[in-house]
Design a protein that fits this description.
Blueprint lengths: L2 H19 L6 E5 L8 E3 L2 E3 L1 H13 L3 E5 L5 H6 L5 E7 L2 H4 L3 E2 L4 E3 L1 E6 L17 E4 L3 H11 L9 E4 L2 H9 L5 E5 H8 L4 E6 L4 E7 L6 H13 L2 H9 L3
Parallel strand pairs: 1-4, 1-5, 9-10, 9-11
Antiparallel strand pairs: 2-3, 5-13, 6-13, 7-13, 8-11, 8-12
Length: 249
């Protein structure tokens, strides 16, 4: 066996060992619709908010690098099912329909649906049954969309053309300010966030409960670790600290 052959063999084995030893950790891909203050928004080109901080904590507990992938809200679940992302942290409420497609952690925040009014809005209704008289804007694929469609459009209380769907929350708010719609229905947490940057106000609270949770693939490889990480973040008081930083009570 020649010395050259032995040298080449040694070099090949050495490179293989180094390659195996320096294998990079997989990146945790987190899907998020980054336009839902105070849970997620873009400030000075940086992602900020409750869900952004929670994403950092979850990845930290899992000892994984992570990437936040910004996408439209109504595409998040399909992206999860097609393995384009690993989890969803995006102020996503637990619903029966979603639970048939994904697995949720325990809730990390509780909110309610509310009517949001602008300066050009008519007088705020005092009863939920009066919503059918108005033109309402909602985020496509949101719980507000589902709630109004099932509870009002399907029951012929709200004409279908009076339920206006938007791909982004900001589009709905801007349409409200322009007087193109009468009200927006969204979560109370988002309404407070938009109220800090837009001339809008919170009105009637609807008879709903929104429990935000992390969405994961059914039987996903990280599910147990993520559930444990969230529990640790709750028990340690880290979640309360994150909420206090971004949400004024």
């Amino acid at each position: 066996m020649s010395k050259l052959y032995l040298f080449v063999l040694y070099l090949f084995v050495s490179l293989a060992v180094v390659s195996c030893g320096s294998k990079e950790k997989p990146v945790l891909r987190i899907g998020m619709n980054v336009e839902f203050p105070p849970f997620s928004s873009i400030v000075d080109s940086a992602y900020v908010g409750v869900d952004v901080d929670l994403s950092h904590k979850i990845a930290q507990k899992l000892e994984m690098p992570y990437e936040i992938i910004n996408m439209e809200f109504n595409t998040l679940i399909q992206a999860l099912k097609s393995e384009k992302i690993d989890i969803i942290i995006s102020a996503m409420s637990i619903t029966d329909l979603r639970s048939r497609q994904v697995e949720f952690t325990q809730p990390y925040y509780l909110a309610h649906l509310v009517l949001i009014a602008g300066e050009k809005s008519p007088q705020m209704p005092v009863d939920e049954k009066d919503i059918g008289k108005y033109k309402i804007g909602v985020l496509h694929g949101s719980t507000a969309h589902e709630y109004l469609f099932r509870g009002f459009v399907d029951k012929d209380i709200l004409p279908s053309n009076n339920l206006v769907l938007y791909a982004q929350n900001t589009e709905a708010i801007e349409a409200l300010i322009a007087g193109e719609i009468d009200f927006v229905v969204n979560d109370s947490s988002a309404a407070k966030g938009f109220g800090q940057t837009y001339p809008v106000r919170i009105g009637l609270q609807l008879n709903t409960k929104e429990e935000y949770a992390i969405a994961m693939p059914r039987d996903g490889k990280y599910n147990e670790k993520i559930n444990n990480a969230l529990q640790d973040i709750i028990d340690s008081g880290e979640l309360n600290s994150i909420l206090a930083t971004h949400i004024a009570e």
